[in-house]
Design a protein that fits this description.
With 210 residues, this protein is of the alpha/beta class. The chain has two domains: 8-20 and 27-106 and 184-200, no CATH class; 116-183. 54% of the residues lie in helices and 10% in strands. It has four helices and four strands; from the N terminus they run H-E-E-H-E-H-H-E. The chain has helices at 8-11, 57-69, 90-143, 147-189; strands at residues 14-15, 29-34, 76-82, 193-197. It has a four-stranded mixed beta sheet with strand order 1-2-3-4. Strand 2 (29-34), helix 2 (57-69) and strand 3 (76-82) form a beta-alpha-beta unit. Helix 3 (90-143) runs antiparallel to helix 4.
Length: 210
Protein backbone atom coordinates (compact mmCIF):
# COMPACT_ATOMS: atom_id res chain seq x y z
CA UNK A 1 0.00 0.00 0.00
CA UNK A 2 1.33 3.38 -0.97
CA UNK A 3 1.56 6.13 1.60
CA UNK A 4 0.78 9.80 0.95
CA UNK A 5 3.79 11.85 0.02
CA UNK A 6 3.89 15.23 1.65
CA UNK A 7 6.42 17.54 0.08
CA UNK A 8 8.81 19.48 2.30
CA UNK A 9 7.25 22.68 1.05
CA UNK A 10 3.82 21.59 2.24
CA UNK A 11 4.93 19.87 5.44
CA UNK A 12 4.88 23.05 7.53
CA UNK A 13 1.62 25.03 7.77
CA UNK A 14 1.69 28.50 6.36
CA UNK A 15 1.22 30.80 9.31
CA UNK A 16 0.06 34.32 8.46
CA UNK A 17 0.84 36.78 11.24
CA UNK A 18 -2.00 39.14 12.18
CA UNK A 19 -1.63 42.88 11.84
CA UNK A 20 0.02 44.68 14.70
CA UNK A 21 -3.19 46.30 15.94
CA UNK A 22 -4.61 44.45 18.92
CA UNK A 23 -8.19 44.74 17.67
CA UNK A 24 -7.54 42.74 14.49
CA UNK A 25 -8.34 39.05 14.38
CA UNK A 26 -5.58 36.50 13.85
CA UNK A 27 -5.25 35.32 10.25
CA UNK A 28 -5.94 31.63 9.55
CA UNK A 29 -3.16 29.08 9.93
CA UNK A 30 -3.11 27.21 6.62
CA UNK A 31 -2.42 23.47 6.73
CA UNK A 32 -1.61 21.93 3.34
CA UNK A 33 -1.97 18.24 2.58
CA UNK A 34 -0.65 16.92 -0.74
CA UNK A 35 -1.11 13.38 -2.06
CA UNK A 36 -0.26 11.70 -5.36
CA UNK A 37 -3.67 10.04 -5.42
CA UNK A 38 -6.85 10.64 -3.46
CA UNK A 39 -6.97 7.01 -2.32
CA UNK A 40 -3.82 7.56 -0.26
CA UNK A 41 -5.69 10.04 1.94
CA UNK A 42 -8.40 7.61 3.04
CA UNK A 43 -8.82 4.44 5.05
CA UNK A 44 -8.52 1.63 2.52
CA UNK A 45 -10.86 -0.60 4.56
CA UNK A 46 -13.70 1.91 4.83
CA UNK A 47 -16.44 0.85 2.36
CA UNK A 48 -18.38 4.11 2.70
CA UNK A 49 -18.80 6.47 -0.27
CA UNK A 50 -15.87 8.84 -0.73
CA UNK A 51 -17.59 11.86 0.80
CA UNK A 52 -18.39 9.85 3.97
CA UNK A 53 -15.11 7.98 4.25
CA UNK A 54 -12.64 8.33 7.12
CA UNK A 55 -9.26 9.74 6.25
CA UNK A 56 -6.22 7.55 6.84
CA UNK A 57 -4.43 7.46 10.17
CA UNK A 58 -1.32 8.99 8.58
CA UNK A 59 -3.23 11.88 7.02
CA UNK A 60 -5.16 12.44 10.25
CA UNK A 61 -1.95 12.49 12.30
CA UNK A 62 -0.32 14.84 9.78
CA UNK A 63 -3.13 17.40 9.98
CA UNK A 64 -3.61 17.03 13.75
CA UNK A 65 0.06 17.61 14.51
CA UNK A 66 0.18 20.77 12.44
CA UNK A 67 -3.00 21.96 14.08
CA UNK A 68 -1.35 21.47 17.48
CA UNK A 69 1.62 23.54 16.31
CA UNK A 70 -0.59 26.37 15.06
CA UNK A 71 -1.11 29.44 17.27
CA UNK A 72 -3.98 28.80 19.68
CA UNK A 73 -5.71 32.07 18.85
CA UNK A 74 -5.51 31.54 15.08
CA UNK A 75 -8.39 29.87 13.22
CA UNK A 76 -7.39 26.91 11.09
CA UNK A 77 -7.79 26.33 7.37
CA UNK A 78 -7.10 23.02 5.63
CA UNK A 79 -6.08 22.81 1.98
CA UNK A 80 -5.99 19.43 0.23
CA UNK A 81 -3.93 19.32 -2.97
CA UNK A 82 -4.78 16.56 -5.43
CA UNK A 83 -3.32 15.60 -8.82
CA UNK A 84 -5.21 16.66 -11.94
CA UNK A 85 -6.68 13.18 -12.53
CA UNK A 86 -8.57 13.52 -9.22
CA UNK A 87 -9.93 17.00 -9.93
CA UNK A 88 -13.50 15.74 -10.28
CA UNK A 89 -13.41 14.35 -6.73
CA UNK A 90 -12.47 17.61 -5.01
CA UNK A 91 -15.96 18.30 -3.67
CA UNK A 92 -16.24 14.81 -2.17
CA UNK A 93 -12.75 14.97 -0.66
CA UNK A 94 -13.53 18.36 0.84
CA UNK A 95 -16.74 17.05 2.41
CA UNK A 96 -15.00 13.90 3.65
CA UNK A 97 -12.35 15.92 5.51
CA UNK A 98 -14.96 18.15 7.15
CA UNK A 99 -17.10 15.20 8.25
CA UNK A 100 -14.07 13.23 9.44
CA UNK A 101 -12.96 15.88 11.92
CA UNK A 102 -16.52 16.47 13.13
CA UNK A 103 -16.81 12.72 13.69
CA UNK A 104 -13.51 12.63 15.57
CA UNK A 105 -14.63 15.48 17.84
CA UNK A 106 -17.85 13.62 18.64
CA UNK A 107 -15.92 10.40 19.34
CA UNK A 108 -13.67 12.22 21.80
CA UNK A 109 -16.74 13.71 23.49
CA UNK A 110 -18.28 10.23 23.87
CA UNK A 111 -14.97 8.85 25.11
CA UNK A 112 -14.77 11.51 27.82
CA UNK A 113 -18.31 10.82 29.01
CA UNK A 114 -17.59 7.10 29.08
CA UNK A 115 -14.41 7.70 31.05
CA UNK A 116 -16.24 9.74 33.69
CA UNK A 117 -19.01 7.16 33.97
CA UNK A 118 -16.54 4.31 34.34
CA UNK A 119 -14.38 6.28 36.77
CA UNK A 120 -17.38 7.23 38.91
CA UNK A 121 -18.63 3.63 38.99
CA UNK A 122 -15.19 2.35 39.96
CA UNK A 123 -14.91 5.04 42.64
CA UNK A 124 -18.26 4.07 44.19
CA UNK A 125 -17.35 0.39 44.21
CA UNK A 126 -13.88 1.18 45.54
CA UNK A 127 -15.22 3.34 48.36
CA UNK A 128 -17.66 0.61 49.38
CA UNK A 129 -14.91 -2.01 49.50
CA UNK A 130 -12.57 0.45 51.23
CA UNK A 131 -15.12 1.12 53.98
CA UNK A 132 -15.45 -2.60 54.62
CA UNK A 133 -11.68 -3.08 54.76
CA UNK A 134 -11.18 -0.08 57.04
CA UNK A 135 -13.87 -1.41 59.38
CA UNK A 136 -12.24 -4.84 59.46
CA UNK A 137 -8.82 -3.30 60.08
CA UNK A 138 -10.14 -1.25 63.01
CA UNK A 139 -11.94 -4.24 64.50
CA UNK A 140 -8.78 -6.32 64.30
CA UNK A 141 -6.67 -3.55 65.78
CA UNK A 142 -9.16 -3.01 68.61
CA UNK A 143 -9.76 -6.67 69.42
CA UNK A 144 -6.28 -8.10 69.26
CA UNK A 145 -2.96 -6.65 70.26
CA UNK A 146 -0.14 -8.37 68.44
CA UNK A 147 2.46 -7.56 65.83
CA UNK A 148 0.82 -9.90 63.31
CA UNK A 149 -2.60 -8.30 63.68
CA UNK A 150 -1.05 -4.85 63.33
CA UNK A 151 0.64 -5.94 60.11
CA UNK A 152 -2.64 -7.31 58.78
CA UNK A 153 -4.41 -4.04 59.60
CA UNK A 154 -1.68 -2.04 57.86
CA UNK A 155 -1.91 -4.38 54.87
CA UNK A 156 -5.65 -3.78 54.63
CA UNK A 157 -5.05 -0.03 54.73
CA UNK A 158 -2.59 -0.40 51.85
CA UNK A 159 -5.16 -2.37 49.86
CA UNK A 160 -7.61 0.50 50.35
CA UNK A 161 -5.19 2.93 48.72
CA UNK A 162 -4.60 0.52 45.82
CA UNK A 163 -8.35 0.11 45.27
CA UNK A 164 -8.97 3.87 45.18
CA UNK A 165 -5.90 4.77 43.12
CA UNK A 166 -7.21 3.76 39.69
CA UNK A 167 -10.60 5.56 39.80
CA UNK A 168 -8.89 8.63 41.25
CA UNK A 169 -6.33 8.53 38.43
CA UNK A 170 -9.11 8.28 35.84
CA UNK A 171 -11.14 11.16 37.27
CA UNK A 172 -8.17 13.46 37.88
CA UNK A 173 -5.72 12.80 35.05
CA UNK A 174 -6.96 10.48 32.27
CA UNK A 175 -9.56 12.89 30.91
CA UNK A 176 -7.07 15.71 30.30
CA UNK A 177 -5.53 14.39 27.04
CA UNK A 178 -9.00 13.43 25.80
CA UNK A 179 -10.22 16.98 26.37
CA UNK A 180 -7.20 18.34 24.50
CA UNK A 181 -7.92 16.08 21.52
CA UNK A 182 -11.61 17.00 21.60
CA UNK A 183 -10.79 20.69 21.47
CA UNK A 184 -8.27 20.08 18.69
CA UNK A 185 -10.81 18.22 16.55
CA UNK A 186 -13.43 20.85 17.32
CA UNK A 187 -11.05 23.45 15.83
CA UNK A 188 -10.48 21.27 12.79
CA UNK A 189 -14.20 20.55 12.41
CA UNK A 190 -14.83 24.30 12.32
CA UNK A 191 -12.00 24.91 9.85
CA UNK A 192 -12.84 25.69 6.22
CA UNK A 193 -11.50 23.05 3.84
CA UNK A 194 -10.29 23.75 0.31
CA UNK A 195 -9.60 20.99 -2.18
CA UNK A 196 -7.65 22.08 -5.24
CA UNK A 197 -5.55 20.66 -8.04
CA UNK A 198 -1.91 20.75 -6.98
CA UNK A 199 -0.75 22.58 -10.12
CA UNK A 200 -3.25 25.36 -9.34
CA UNK A 201 -2.03 25.92 -5.77
CA UNK A 202 -1.17 29.54 -6.47
CA UNK A 203 -4.21 30.24 -8.61
CA UNK A 204 -7.01 29.60 -6.13
CA UNK A 205 -9.15 26.72 -5.02
CA UNK A 206 -10.87 24.24 -7.29
CA UNK A 207 -14.66 24.71 -7.45
CA UNK A 208 -14.44 27.38 -4.78
CA UNK A 209 -13.55 27.16 -1.10
CA UNK A 210 -15.51 26.79 2.07
Amino acid sequence: MHTPRFSHRDRVPTMHQPNTTASDHAAPALIKVRAEDRSLLFDAYDPAPLRERRISEEANAFVAQRARNAPKQAPLRVRVLLPSHDAACCDDVQTAFQQHFARCEQEQRVMMRSLFREGAAMAIEGIAVALVLVTVARLLAGSFESVMVEKIANGLSLIVWVILWRPADMLIYDWVPIRKDRRLYARLAAAPVDCIVAEDDNAGSHNGST
